[in-house]
Amino acid sequence: MTAAYQYNTDTGIISVDSEDMLSDVQKEWTDIYGTNLDLAAETPQGTMIGGEATNRIGLMKNNADIANMMNPNYSYSTYLDAVCAWLMPDGRGKNLSTTGTGVEVDGDPGTKIQAGFRVKNSTDDIFVVSEDVTIGASRKEMINIASQESGPVPLPQGTLEIVDAVIGWGGATVINSTAVVLGTKQLTDPQLKTLRNQSLFAMGLSATGAIQANLLAVDNVKSIKIEENMTGAAGLVNGITFTGPGIWVCVAGAATSADIANAIFAARQGACPYDYGTNNGTPVDSPNGTPVTDPYSQSVYRVKFTRAVEKDVYIRLKAKKGTSTASEIAVSRAIKDYADGLVDGEPGFVVGSSISAFEVAGAVCRQYPGLYVYSSLVAVVAKGAAAPSDSDYKTEVPLSPWEIGTLAIGNITVNLD
User: Fold this and answer.
1) Distance CA 310, CA 382 (A)
2) How far apart are CA 395 and CA 314, in angstroms?
3) Architecture of 97-181 per CATH?
4) Residue 98: closest CA among 125, 132, 131
5) Which helix (H) or strand (E) holds 302?
6) Taking the domains of the chain in order of start, what are their residue ranges?
7) Can you give the C-alpha Rg of the chain in angstroms?
8) Residue 1 has pLDDT above 60, yes or no
9) Are strands 112-113 and 133-134 parallel, antiparallel or unpaired?
């Protein structure tokens, strides 16, 4: 048979069957110059035939690669953006800094705080002053700041530490009236592919998949868990204690309550009511719910949902290097990437998902196939609690439907032999 393109109906991938390319080119030459033509690779004609076969294979593979860019599971970069554009107009989002408008500063009159001066919060995140400000006679002024790193960097009320000190500048404080707008972080290719698959319900209504898709389109929503009680009575349904028939939504991430409530309302459109449940996460705007104004009737409705309860995850992994050259730092980074959903096809730690040492080991071996993992253990404690003891480490830690694991790089211990 001759070299040809092949289409795999299971994966949608176009590949090149180039096994017979050399013989195809050789036949073309013998058809022209006769069957007695010496086709040995060391002859001039053999070299030309080999080069032509290589060029054709390269061209066919290039064509196949371009065609595969239309497949959302295998495309990347701007090709992936184009595939996702019809479903998600905002695509992978933007890298935007967290901003604080109206941060109070105090000091001596006449002191100039220049744009570019830095302050930092209690978690050592750096914020930069946006424009020059001179402290007046009242000894207090307001400045605007933006985080140096993009994403939802926390900026809670309280005193900020001055990094670039200047004589006369006494302090900086995030006060009650400071307007904080959380930033966003652009999605990587693996994250965008996962989001696209989760957003295929975006055109629907009422289904839990449609609510999930609408919520995932909201900036700084990380993960969602949805359960529905259709039994007609209060009680336990799939781990959630309902107060009656209704729908329970739990959201992880730093998105505003108003944005979340509007997304739920836009997709829900009637059916059974919203329900906080009983002790199923952190209720938002309890007891009535977050107000949402229907854009058509202008009526105000109350949307009830909960915030996920974060849990600190600790991981201990032991492995033999085998044929891999991975370092302990690189393996730790691979585990952190898996937990954050940065591995292609893996959502990472999500609401209601158990923390599995097997999954962690699999993520490491996928990234470093020459590595042999012989021990992988995980432990989970309350957010901010003391580190777990040795007896707390297990192969799997189930989480409640309203809980989500969070992993800091410092909570990962890797030993390579």
Assistant:
1) 7
2) 12
3) Beta Barrel (2.40)
4) 125
5) strand 300-303
6) 4-68, 97-181, 201-307, 311-416
7) 29
8) no
9) antiparallel
Distance of CA 292 to CAs 73, 221, 243, 255, Å? 36, 18, 22, 16
Q: Which residues contact 207 (CB under 8 A, 6 or more apart)?
A: 201
Q: What is the residue type of 108?
A: D
What contacts 123, CB < 8 A, 6 or more positions away? 154
> Distances from the Cα of 75 to the Cαs of 65, 66, 69, in angstroms?
9, 9, 4
State the CB neighbour count (10 A cutoff) for residue 229: 24
Place of tokens 């604080």: 100
Note the pLDDT of residue 270.
Answer: 60
Report whether 321 contacts 331 (CB < 8 A). no
Contact (Cβ atoms closer than 8 angstroms) between residue 122 and residue 174 = no
The first and second tokens of residue 345, run together, are: 């096809």
Q: What SS3 class is residue 218?
A: coil
pTM value? Answer: 0.65
The span from the CA of 147 to the CA of 160, in Å, is 13
Q: Give the containing element (helix H, strand E) for 103.
A: strand 97-107
Q: What is the pLDDT of residues 12-33, one digit of tens each?
A: 888 888 878 888 888 889 999 9
Phi and psi for 251 in degrees, rounded to 5?
-120, 135
Beta-bridged to residue 129, according to DSSP, are 145
Terminal C-alpha separation, the chain: 50
Whole-angstrom distance, CA of residue 228 vs CA of residue 210: 13
